[in-house]
Design a protein that fits this description.
Layout lengths: L6 H8 L1 H17 L6 E6 L5 H8 L2 E7 L2 H14 L3 E5 L11 E6 L10 H14 E12 L1 H7 L5 E7 L2 E10 L4 E12 L2 E12 L3 H10 L2 E9 L4 E2 L6 E8 L2
Parallel strand pairs: 1-2, 1-4, 2-3, 4-5
Antiparallel strand pairs: 5-12, 6-7, 7-8, 8-9, 10-11, 10-12
Helix pairs in contact: 2-3, 5-7
Length: 251
């Protein structure tokens, strides 16, 4: 079973905050790095559409792609509810089917860590490069090696959501040899007088900064910034749990 089929409903109920924060920060990033405001934006692994909808409200022409059709159904409903125009397509980020169409591409919430080999990560970067116009930019985040190996295991078992209609529990472990973090998600969702149980296992790969940069450059990008805090534009630190990248497609 593909990820985010059962979990889509759970995700939509409690995980919009991060994408909304990224949308709020986007204008400041555009200004800080002197990027062209507006234009066509490709939101990769767009999920339930929070960032895509917010970007459309800011005036971007947005196309969102995700491998989960269940998440895209939520994204379309979100756009309709917000009264904005955005396109959504079911597509694997390793097989992006665009050519020179976008001014900006984004990929949020460590979605790229779900690619468990450098080969797959490179394919994703190459697809983004093809999708961008010459001089276009790619803005994304990833969990760092420190984040997955040190920060995540500090809470090996945690309740992520606890409401009258939903209980969500995460159990986390890290394989140091493979550099892969695994999260077992068990959720109970109320359906009328009964409860529906769902379970998924999510895995994320920890990539060194040098590997990410090499793969970006091999795909035709130059790195403009590597940050440990996007809100304050603080450079990446050794103990940063997350890293934000801004890369420019070489014309």
């Amino acid at each position: 079973m593909s990820l985010y089929q059962q979990f889509a409903k759970v995700y939509a109920s409690g995980y919009r905050g991060y994408s909304q924060n990224m949308a709020e920060l986007l204008p400041a990033v555009i200004t800080h790095y002197h990027l062209a405001p507006g234009g066509r934006l490709l939101d990769i692994a767009c999920g339930e559409g929070s960032f895509a909808v917010a970007a459309a409200q800011q005036g971007w022409q947005v196309v969102g792609v995700d491998q989960s059709c269940d998440m895209l159904d939520l994204a379309r409903a979100h756009a309709l509810e917000a009264g904005v125009s955005a396109e959504f397509s079911c597509m694997d980020m390793r097989e992006l089917d665009f050519s020179g169409q976008f001014d900006l591409a984004t990929c949020w919430y460590d979605s790229l860590n779900y690619l468990l080999t450098a080969e797959d990560l490179g394919k994703a970067f190459q697809g983004v490069a093809r999708a961008l116009k010459p001089g276009g930019h790619f803005l994304f985040d990833m969990n760092t090696v420190y984040g997955l190996a040190v920060s995540w295991p500090r809470q090996p078992s945690a309740v992520r959501q606890d409401t009258p209609d939903l209980m969500e529990i995460h159990q986390t472990r890290y394989d140091h040899e493979a550099q892969i973090a695994s999260v077992r998600i068990v959720a109970f969702l109320r359906k009328g007088e009964q409860w529906e149980r769902m379970e998924e296992v999510h895995q994320e790969k920890a990539y060194p900064v040098s590997t990410v940069q090499a793969l970006l450059e091999a795909a035709g990008f130059e790195v403009a910034a590597t940050l440990g805090n996007l809100r304050e534009f603080i450079p990446l630190q050794l103990d940063s749990p997350r890293m934000w990248w801004l890369a420019r497609k070489i014309a």
